[in-house]
Amino acid sequence: MHRRLACLAVALLVSGCSFPGFSPPPNYQYVVITAGGVGLRTGDSDVPPNLDLKLHATGAPLQPSDVTATLDGAKLALAQAGTDLVATVKPLLALSSTHRLAVAVAGMKTQDITFSVIPPTAAMIAAHIDPVSGLVVDAVFADAPDQTAVAAALPGATVTWIDGEHARITWRGKTPPSISLPATLPTAGDAHLDPGITLSLVGIPRNAIRRVTVPAAPSVKGILIDAFVINTALSNSSFAFHLGAVAETSPTGWQAQADGTVLGTPDQAAVGRAGAAGVPIWPSLTNNPDPKATDQLLTNPKAVNVLINEMLAAIKYDGYKGINVDFEGMLAADKDPFTAFVQQLATALHAHNAKLVVDIVPHDFAGTNAYSAAYDVAAIGKAADLVDLMAYDEHGDGGTPGPVAGLDWDNSILEATLPDLDPAHVLLGVPLYGREWGSIGGASAYSNVLYNALHVAGARVDYDFQTQTPFILSPNGSLTTYFDDADSLARKVALVHTYGLAGIAAWRLGFEDPQFWSLFSG
After folding, report:
1. Which pLDDT tens digits describe the chain residue by residue (522 residues)?
2. Domain closes at, from 56, 86, 116
3. For the chain, how many structural domains are there in total?
4. 247 and 335, same domain (yes or no)
5. How far, CA to CA in Å, does 478 sit from each of 436, 452, 473?
6. What angle separates helix 233-241 from helix 268-277, to the nearest 10 degrees?
7. Residue 40: domain span
8. 499 & 364 share domain
9. Is 7 domain-assigned?
10. Residue whose C-alpha is closest to residue 130's, from 387, 372, 369, 457
């Protein structure tokens, strides 16, 4: 574990008490408490399993007779180590377990510290067919494992270490049907895997990745899915196959013009399928990509009325259950006009028993940003039935490679945006696509980005444990590909449970890893 670099001193303050007939203790001044060589304080969650406790006084050498330390109420055996006192525990403390340490020094106030032991080491193993080497497996560890133990767990394999946390596993002869690394596999800081990790190597197709990560992703069964569908064969095929998992659908095709008229129609194939299956249809209404045209629309009451009447006619004559408003790239100056439009449209739709969903760019940890400036989040949340937080494009074209939506980033934007909203009326926008940087660039479907990345001999599958997102690196650095598969998507979708959200809005069907749907079945 990467713990704090600065040693945090815990000051045990002199109480000022004295007792007749007893010699006062030395003036210890401050006592520094460390675990594993790093200052220990309440709330720490990266303490080594053996505790590795050290007590150091800045004013005088500590005397064992002046110090009592207990762990969960049991007295620790303190040993003299120069001018310090030290202690370790056996058997080792369980990984992720929580404990209470009490340190009493004569003449000082007792210090109580509650801490947790380091968690099990996270790891990923991923297999694919290299165009030159054949079947290869990439192993990635959050903390350096014992390389001898890894080799022992993989008899017959050649394990090539790229660095302390990354290895490439290959076979010269016949490959085994599966590989496993045991839960007892030791890693840095006296940690280990828990649970172990097993990956089947049978039947892996070309241009595909099979991977397993521990800890496993949480279950997301039962979570509501609002699915965006566009007029492509892939998008409609995905919708047709997975109608039963979709709670509502937002077919694209409408675009609002500057005069309030609407260009296009919602994807008719999706509308027909949803209608036949009884899936509520909330067509998606986008704005003109020219911000000036959107400004002309929103600042013209007559044009706004025309647009609202167009939406009411669609509700009345086409039987839609609601409208999804997806206005993006607006001028910051249009914040109030857009809010007024949302409020007017919501009132009109509600009068016809229809719902309104509004897509917004969420705020980030720094507050309102250039992309979210046109959204009055609180006012929109009060008017709309649901708000879709478009939690994607954390890293975009032309910028630094990174996740389309890392788990840590998702958490940060939810924490920044939800204070203005009722979480029970919020959909988390989830990206189903990947993105490439380098010789090939841009966003594309899961299958496309994998094909491009794995077509390069020597490509290596890696994993970012902080963002919990997989990525692929070409051997010469010419291509970097971040993608989301079923495992990484499950970790984001599970935020619905964490924050008590209404569900997810999936952008868009046809982009996804086919295994994405297995998350919601059974």
Report:
1. 444 333 434 444 333 344 445 578 899 999 999 999 999 999 999 999 999 999 999 999 999 999 999 999 999 999 999 999 999 999 999 999 999 999 999 989 999 999 999 999 999 999 999 999 999 999 999 999 999 999 999 999 999 999 999 999 999 989 999 999 999 999 998 899 999 999 999 999 999 999 999 999 999 999 999 999 999 999 999 999 999 999 999 999 999 999 999 999 999 999 999 999 999 999 999 999 999 999 999 999 999 999 999 999 999 999 999 999 999 999 999 999 999 999 999 999 999 999 999 999 998 878 888 899 999 999 999 999 999 999 999 999 989 999 999 999 999 999 999 999 999 999 999 999 999 999 888 999 999 999 999 999 999 999 999 999 999 999 999 999 999 999 999 999 999 999 999 999 999 999 999 999 999 986
2. 116
3. 3
4. yes
5. 10, 12, 8
6. 10
7. 31-116
8. yes
9. no
10. 457
Same domain, 206 and 269: no
The reply to whether 190 and 241 lie within a common domain is no
Residue 397 phi, psi dihedral angles, 5° rounding: -60, 140
Contact 143, 1 (CB under 8 A): yes
Do 442 and 496 lie in one domain? The reply is no
Residue 26 forms part of a structural domain: no
CB 403, CB 469: distance < 8 Å: yes
